[in-house]
Amino acid sequence: MATDLHRPVTTPAPSPAGEPEAAVRVEGLTRSFDGRAVIDGLALTLKAGEFTALLGRSGCGKSTLLRVLAGLDREIAGTVLVPRRRAVAFQAPRLMPWKRVWRNVLLGLPGKPERALAEKALAEVGLTERAGAWPKTLSGGEAQRASLARALVREPDLLLLDEPFGALDALTRIKAQQLVAELWQRRGCAVLLVTHDVDEALLLADRVLVMREGGIAYDTAVGLDRPRGIGAPGFAGLRSRLLSELGVEDGGAEDAGADDQRHREAAAVAHFDV
Ligand SMILES: Nc1ncnc2c1ncn2[C@@H]1O[C@H](COP(=O)(O)OP(=O)(O)OP(=O)(O)O)[C@@H](O)[C@H]1O
């Protein structure tokens, strides 16, 4: 029987003396479904302000981990220390269709927050003009930006992103990636991005984790200079290492092929100015 030891804290989880402040500290985390441990004794520390990408094969438990960190799942054993100010955005923007965009942005905030607060967050994601619109009138990319604004309005110290760009077309996806990179640089919050896309991980993150068999099986720093492009020196080596950690031959398997195709389509405009 899982014991609930989830203990959200108001300040980032403490680190031993001399180490940078931690945004997240997880020890011995186990989450089981029907007696099967999807996460099994996982340990993880994320530094404050660090951008981390989380890769792993389908079904390995990435979303489960994110939901635990978001505080949406407390049926766990182990210790999870996260900042109180945290926000999550999912692949599906999850906007309430009967509320205008600005009201969606403020959804769930305590008290009676003013429209101006939503408008500030919407301006950050370039959606000022759609504040009064109904969600069904938004494009996929706009809806995703509204979802990001809803996360930003919470002023998170930890931003959790679960494949937020997965459903977007190639160009919209690149714009959304650039936006997240800019927001991260401006806000300075820790970001944990779940993605299937190795290139996306390497373009955006300081650090990439690969999840396997219920734990973090591989953990690497991405020391590439910014701005980054998929042709940067060192990119291909990291890419092939990560693909092999995922059990995919570089350039061979279908998943990687689809990503290659997307990036070829977008390569002409892809440039990360951060
Ligand atoms: N509420 C639930 N009840 C039962 N099983 C669940 C539940 N949530 C997740 N699982 C199982 O836990 C495992 C991990 O699921 P999870 O969604 O975390 O994987 P993932 O790595 O995010 O996958 P994907 O990359 O395909 O989104 C899967 O086998 C899934 O079926």
From TrEMBL:
Gene3D superfamilies: P-loop containing nucleotide triphosphate hydrolases. The keyword Transcription does not apply. The keyword Cell cycle does not apply. InterPro entries: AAA+_ATPase (IPR003593), ABC_transporter-like_ATP-bd (IPR003439), ABC_transporter-like_CS (IPR017871), ABC_transporter_ATP-bind (IPR050166), P-loop_NTPase (IPR027417). Residues 24-238 form the ABC transporter domain. PROSITE patterns: ABC_TRANSPORTER_1, ABC_TRANSPORTER_2. It holds the Pfam family ABC_tran. One of its GO terms (molecular function) is ATP binding. Residues 1-21 are annotated as: Disordered. It comes from the Bacteria. This is ABC transporter ATP-binding protein.
